[in-house]
Structures are given as C-alpha cells and as structure tokens.
Amino acid sequence: MAILAILLVAGLLVLPGVDGAAHRPSGVPATATVASTSPAPAAPVAAAAPDPGGPASTTPPPLAAHPVGGVARAQHVGHAYKNVDPAYRRASYWARLHSLVIGGTWLFTEHRVAALPLAKPDLAALRANTRPTVTWIGHSTVLVQLDHVTLLTDPTWAQRSGPFSGRIGVRRYTPPGIPFERLPKIDFVLISHDHYDHLDEDTVRRLARTFDPVFIVPLGIKSWLADRGIRNAIELDWGESVTLRGLTIVCLPAQHGGGRTAIDQGRRLWSAWAVLGSKRFYFAGDTGYYRHFKEAGDTFGPFDLAALPIGSYTPRDIAKPVHISPEEAVQAAMDLHATHFLGVHWGTFALAREPYDEPPKRLAAELERRHVDPGLAWILEPGETKIW
What we know:
Blueprint: H1 2-9, E1 31-33, E2 62-64, E3 66-67, E4 75-77, E5 80-82, H2 93-103, H3 123-128, E6 133-138, E7 141-146, E8 149-153, E9 160-161, H4 163-166, E10 170-171, E11 188-190, H5 201-211, E12 214-218, H6 221-226, E13 233-236, E14 240-244, E15 247-252, E16 272-276, E17 280-283, H7 292-300, E18 305-309, H8 316-319, H9 326-335, E19 340-344, H10 358-369, E20 377-378, E21 385-387
Parallel strand pairs: 8-11, 11-12, 12-13, 17-18, 18-19, 19-20
Antiparallel strand pairs: 1-2, 3-14, 4-5, 6-7, 6-21, 7-8, 9-10, 14-15, 15-16, 16-17
Helix pairs in contact: 7-9, 9-10
C-alpha cells in the first residue's frame, strides 16, 4: 500500500477513469451559469444547511471572461501548458520519487510533526461579514472576506491528501481551523491548480452541495468539476478576468505545474489570482520564484494582502523550480508591493523534508536580516482571523 501511495502521489501510476483535460483556445469566452451577479447584502447571513442531494441547479445569465492588458496568455508545448520562465526545468519523476522514498515525511509513521495550536474563530463576526478579514483554515485554504463577499482559496478539509478520496496519500496532522459545518456562506471558490492538496474532490463536492458557490478555476479544471456534477464554474486563462458580486478576479501566471496522474501532467493550467475591490488581495497558489510576482505587483498592485506559500521547499534542488522558500516569499511580497502577506502552505500536511515548524522561523530570520518590519508577514494559528 505504501508503494502504491508513492506512485500515485508522485504521478507515476495511471488511475482508471481519468478524464482528458479540456483546453479552451485563446479568444473564446468562458461562461458559467450563476445564480446572481448583484452585490451581496451587508446584512448577516447564516451558514446554509447541507443539502443531501447533488449540486444546486443554477440559471442564466452567464458569467463571462474578459481579457486584461499586461498579462500574456498561457502557452503550450505539445499538449501541456508551460511556465513563463524559459529556463524552467523540473526534476524528473524518478528523482522526485526517489526523494519521496528516501525522506518523505508522510511515507512511514511520522514523529517529526505535531498539530499546530488552533485559535477559536469568531464565527458570529465571520457570518456578519462587515469588515475585510482573512482567516487561515490550514495549508493553502484561506477564508477571505471583502466588500461583503466571502471566498475560499484551494479548499481542503481532507484528513489525507491523495487519490481515491484520500484513502491513501499524505496525512493531515493539523485539523482545519474552522469545522466545515461552521463555515459562513461561501460566495465563490478560487482554485489555483489540480494537485490533490489544492483540489480535494470530497471538499469541492461538499461545498457545491452546501453553498453552490461559483468555482473560479484555471483552464481545464472546469471540465474536471463538470464530470463530478459541479457546473457552477468559470475557467480563465492567464490574462483573463471576471467580475462577480462587485469584485474583479484576475487569473495570473504562477510557476508550477498540474496533473493528478501520469497521463494528465500539464494538461490543466495552474495560476495565481488577484481579487480587486475596495482592497486588493493576491493568492499565489503554488509557485517557484520568478518575475511574475513583480509583473503582478506593477500591473495590479499595490496589494493590501498577499497569501504566499512558505513551506515544502526541500529538498531544494527538487523543490526550487515550483516552491518558493520563506526567503523568496519575503522578496515576492516586496515585488507585489504588499502591505502584508500571510504565510500559507505549511504546518498542515506531512509533505516536505524540512521540519514542520521551520518555515516561520526562517521567515522571521529573513525579515530581521533585511531589516524589514516584522509586521509585513502574518503567521496565523489555524482558525485565527485578522482584519486587513
């Protein structure tokens, strides 16, 4: 079973019944059917009761993607998307597999991790949704409230991240900061890419049943959702935007990759996201360091808040192309002209070779080395909320 888990998580074993990735040619508008595009009311909204049936049906009008200036569209090499850095090179599958076998923290019974302390969330304030807030749920799952709209990034409430609904794969050692059943109403969901720790099938199905949010996703993931009965979705290319409930959401480049098995590597696009309203929020997804941070900051910044990954950066020779280090996260925040950044993608799943509690320590050391105000970076407990 352990070997099977290695192969699946590393993308080296083909899973049965995997759909091919859809590609929308540039210039063809994306559409999604949504229940409403009018601004959300400021009055408190209670969390919806779970619907035991399938995802709620929706009605027109369609939600359309629009091009934005200053961002190049994603390009292909064969059937796979490619990163914007022409020098980008990823370690081979076999090198990554070897690293997982030799030192992966998730393979055997793990004694090097411990659950992070949880904060007690102010659920009444989150349901009232009267101020811009950010709450770290765990890993890359962030609950953001802006202009009376509530969104989630890369949601996962899974106890194990991997195929077959998490029956095998990477275990979670810190529980979600807010239990799913205590969530406020979710208006839309941002997905950065299709890796298991960022796109959890059971979680998105449950979100669709409970809240019927709009899923805003990179190219190719809309068809993946549709195959699972989730049709309230719109997919965007890099350099496209959509306006929803008074907020403009822009799809931006990230340096990473996509794929859930050996046969769909690179078939679905990966992205970062900018959410623009009375304040500006940037979500990096998973990414290596490149000039895309500066380009986003110069074009769409300054950002009031950025959510940047700070974990899973070791072994460095393998992780560097696709995962920034805490030191690079500080530089990325500066490139984005961010007032604050929230460190995510750490302390949740047993994914990486570095000690589970190392990322915040290295982050603090880098801020001190650069003589940067330590208030630039926010390290939250799961469930903790900050006003931004």
